[in-house]
Amino acid sequence: MAGPLISLESDSFDPWKLQAVSHRLCGHPLLQIESLVALGRRLESRKLVRTHSDTATAGTAFGDAPSLHPNQRSAEETLAGIAEARAWMSLLNVQADPVYRTLVDEVLDAVRPFVDRVDPGMSFRGGWIFVTSPGAVTPFHMDHEHNFILQIRGKKRLYTWDPLDRGIISERAQELFHDQHSREEVRWDESFRARARVFDLEPGMGGYMPSTAPHMVENGDEPSITVSFTYYTAATRRRELLYRGNARMRAHGMSPSPVGQSPLRDNVKAAVLSAYMESRARLLRALGRGVRDNKLDYAPT
Ligand SMILES: [Fe+2]
Known about the structure:
Blueprint: E1 6-8, E2 19-23, H1 33-44, E3 49-53, H2 65-68, H3 75-80, E4 87-91, H4 98-118, E5 123-132, E6 137-141, E7 146-153, E8 156-160, H5 171-180, E9 197-201, E10 205-209, E11 215-219, E12 224-232, H6 234-251, H7 263-286
Antiparallel strand pairs: 1-2, 2-10, 3-4, 4-5, 5-12, 6-11, 7-10, 7-12, 8-9, 8-11
Helix pairs in contact: 5-6, 6-7
Fe (ii) ion binds near residues 141, 143 and 215.
């Protein structure tokens, strides 16, 4: 009998710890290359494709990789010929596509029971599909969302780091990331490799990466398909708020205590900040201005 769609490789789930998982998605019809070529065509017309060539390295600034190392081919051409394309391609926010939203729901509904028990409030659900040529590298970076990353085809080495290790990502880098979506202070150093948790991913294997766990990926010597399912929770929203608060305090010349150092102080700060943010959002809406809502069911595009 088939097992669960996603299985944890340990008995317990800690939302702030990296861990290995396994899955049963390799044969899913939506994750075969013919389906992905069609999806790439649909998403490219909506500017939901990100790509760069295989000349990007671990140390390339993540945000600048597409302009520094351009891939000139269309999504359709790249995906259909990925073995020879010398390219890295990500199909972004695939939940924007009605067909692929069903895949995002299928997977995140499957993990939700064990996630909700310890990390409730799932929102901003999303899916990302990475199709990469042999040897292509995903530069070192971090993301806001919790992330189940699953290998579908080919092999890759996923380097990850503890999101709480301030020797890899400083407190200031966390503040800038949450407050301004800036990865300016997220900088690669070759010495980080020795401190990484490495996942040697093959089809059927995967990993869970908590929000802001830095990562870097080296593809193996064949084409690869990898898919990520991502979301926020009440805890990631609260952590973002605390970092934004600390960033603002620092901008006013103060030296805020690091997030997580004092639960009591964090509770007070979170209560004040969330009351402030709610009244600010009410005011902006009254003025007819848009407000980012990170409690939406799906990440918007
Ligand atoms: Fe990422």
